[in-house]
Design a protein that fits this description.
The termini are far apart. The chain is α/β, with parallel strands linked by helices. 46% of the residues lie in helices and 13% in strands. It has one domain: Rossmann fold, CATH 3.40.50. Bound molecules: NADP nicotinamide-adenine-dinucleotide phosphate. The site of NADP nicotinamide-adenine-dinucleotide phosphate has 19 residues, from helix 1.
């Protein structure tokens, strides 16, 4: 008697900052490998355009969701989307170009350094509350 092969489980991946560059190519490679991939971008138009490009090339397993890695509401919205649509992620590629450096703005001002200028060149100001919000991903 022939037994139907058990279908491989669907694996889910998410790539941040994926509307261009390394992120976009990472989405393409993961989708080609058969994963269902969430392409995320902070700009809705750029993200949707990149997603359409991949879908039109035959990669129907790419979906878009907005994500600005420095915006707590955006992170929470995405975490909720993942939880309700997929349950959990198998692969998370943290590609978006934000360093996660915590900046002591008062300390910089005491040294007569403009925090906004310093952040632009050397790091990214991150609200500490955001770091705890981002742990949502780890819990998924
Ligand atoms: N290319 C290299 O040689 C190289 C070497 C070492 C490390 N890296 C690291 O690899 C990563 C990708 O490099 P890349 O060359 O592909 O960079 P890229 O072409 O500049 O792409 C960066 C991506 O991150 C997105 N991004 C920036 N801030 C974001 C935010 N707050 N929330 C969500 N997305 C955000 C950008 O979106 P927008 O289009 O909206 O700006 C863009 O999609 C970066 O983290 C970079 O530091 C790259």
């Amino acid at each position: 008697m022939e037994v139907d092969p058990v279908p491989a489980p669907i694996r889910y991946a998410l790539v941040t900052g994926a509307n261009k560059g390394i992120g976009l190519e990472t989405v393409r490679q993961l989708a080609l490998a058969g994963l269902t991939v969430v392409l995320t971008a902070r700009d809705e138009n750029r993200g949707r355009a990149a997603t359409s490009l991949l879908q039109e090339s035959g990669l129907s397993n790419v979906v878009f969701h907005q994500l600005d890695v420095q915006d707590r509401k955006s992170i929470e919205s995405l975490a909720n989307f993942i939880k309700t649509q997929f349950g959990s992620l198998d692969v998370l590629v943290n590609n978006a170009g934000a360093s996660g450096v915590l900046v002591d703005e008062d300390g910089l001002r005491a040294l007569n350094i403009d925090p906004a200028t310093w952040v632009r060149f050397y790091g990214t100001s991150v609200d500490p509350a955001l770091l705890s919000a981002s742990s949502t991903f780890r819990r998924l």
